[in-house]
Amino acid sequence: MKRATMVQPSSTFVNIKKNLWVSLAIAVLSLCFVPINVSAAVRRHPPQQHHLSRKPSPKLRFGRNGEFKILQVADMHYADGKTTPCEDVLPSQVDGCSDLNTTAFIHRMIEAEKPNFIIFTGDNIYGFDSKDSAKSMDAAFAPAIAARIPWAAVLGNHDQEGTLSREGVMKHIVGLNHTLSQFNPSELHVIDGFGNYNLEVGGVEGSGFVNKSILNLYFLDSGDYSTVPAIPGYGWIKPSQQLWFQRTSAKLLRAYMSPPNAQKSSAPGLVYFHIPLPEVASFDSTNFTGVRQEDIGSASVNSGFFTTLVEAGDVKAVFTGHDHVNDFCGQLTGIQLCYGGGFGYHAYGKAGWPRRARVVVASLEKTEEGGWGTVKSIKTWKRLDDKHLTAIDGEVLWSKKHTGKVE
Ligand SMILES: *[C@@H]1O[C@H](CO)[C@@H](O)[C@H](O)[C@H]1NC(C)=O
Ligand SMILES: *[C@@H]1O[C@H](CO)[C@@H](O)[C@H](O)[C@H]1NC(C)=O
Ligand SMILES: *[C@@H]1O[C@H](CO)[C@@H](O)[C@H](O)[C@H]1NC(C)=O
Ligand SMILES: *[C@@H]1O[C@H](CO)[C@@H](O)[C@H](O)[C@H]1NC(C)=O
């Protein structure tokens, strides 16, 4: 969320990065509680052993229908549940409307789409109005946990405004059931933010790509507010995070191009974080799908992450939240920049303009032998929280054909 609630960084924030070792130790400990109950698209796996240099096997994988479906939930702004009212709904909708409507919407989306994975792109809770950040998070993520669907979350700019710091919020998240969220890369001692990590999505069980990551998911902490006095406004993705991204992308490329089944170019990547990149402002209605109803709430400086993404070459789409009443996707230099669209009822919105969620499906091609191969296309649509969960704005974000087969 950005409207009217911009605050200066609190003095406590600058101290958060102290005790990084303690945080890492706790993060590693928390990883012992990885989900045991796994859905059809997730393979059973032992607790992660980060100190062994063995290649970790992918925990997420494409289903036997050759698809992997992701539900994006942006800006829930969850607070105290039933006692927390809805914002910006029609006068006739005010009575009986609360955070529980956000919960009901997630349940409906899960029922309708049966996603393989759920990604919460920040401002998951609205710290200012929450009495207890841990309880707010438990309630906010409860539908994903109850459905036993693996999920991941990144931080927005409001998650830390309650009883927990950003570090504390991310620590709590990684300890929850069925989450694949990680605190930060275990091999790095210094990185800005909390909740920078990547996940690999393996090929179909029984196919030639069972041991390969054929879709790569990256998650980053886009910060909250600038801590640099001379720079006003929101946070940005820092050089330390971009370096981690570059190295991770290069490592994944090497693995993908190695036998067995060595590929000639990178597997497609999707990136999720909260605050949109400044480049999102370069679109207008002639070159995006969806609507723009407010200014782009990016940082006031450009830290170059878009260029870093273009250089790496694997990322096909970036998904953010933050601006609740923008819900478009536009393509720039071969990368789709997409908003999820505001999801939560205690978040600002536009009365009469339904809350919404974005769905992304990656589909595999068949190999010459008739088995499942690598990713052929990535499609998206949104669903509105209306009577019929109306699906809108379906489009192909990326397709192997259009970019041409790499020789
Ligand atoms: C909120 O949930 C209540 C209870 O299910 C329902 O009656 C009401 O229509 C919902 N409000 C909105 C705006 O969806
Ligand atoms: C996590 O799930 C397991 C098995 O479903 C359950 O026994 C445990 O209490 C859950 N833990 C939390 C923190 O909810
Ligand atoms: C995948 O890895 C397993 C375990 O190492 C191995 O037995 C199997 O042959 C591999 N399959 C393929 C298609 O590479
Ligand atoms: C979108 O179209 C406008 C003209 O209507 C143009 O100025 C802008 O550069 C285009 N943006 C992109 C990203 O193609």
UniProtKB/TrEMBL annotation:
Gene Ontology CC entries for this record: cytoplasm; extracellular region
Listed SUPFAM superfamilies: Metallo-dependent phosphatases
Main location: secreted
Keyword annotations of the record: Glycoprotein, Iron, Metal-binding, Secreted, Signal, Zinc
Stretches assigned to the Calcineurin-like phosphoesterase domain: 68-325
Compartment list: Secreted
Family matches, as InterPro entries: Calcineurin-like_PHP, Metallo-depent_PP-like, PAP14/16/28/29
Entry's Gene Ontology molecular function annotations: hydrolase activity, acting on ester bonds; metal ion binding
PANTHER family per record: PHOSPHATASE DCR2-RELATED, PHOSPHATASE DCR2-RELATED-RELATED
Protein name as catalogued: Calcineurin-like phosphoesterase domain-containing protein
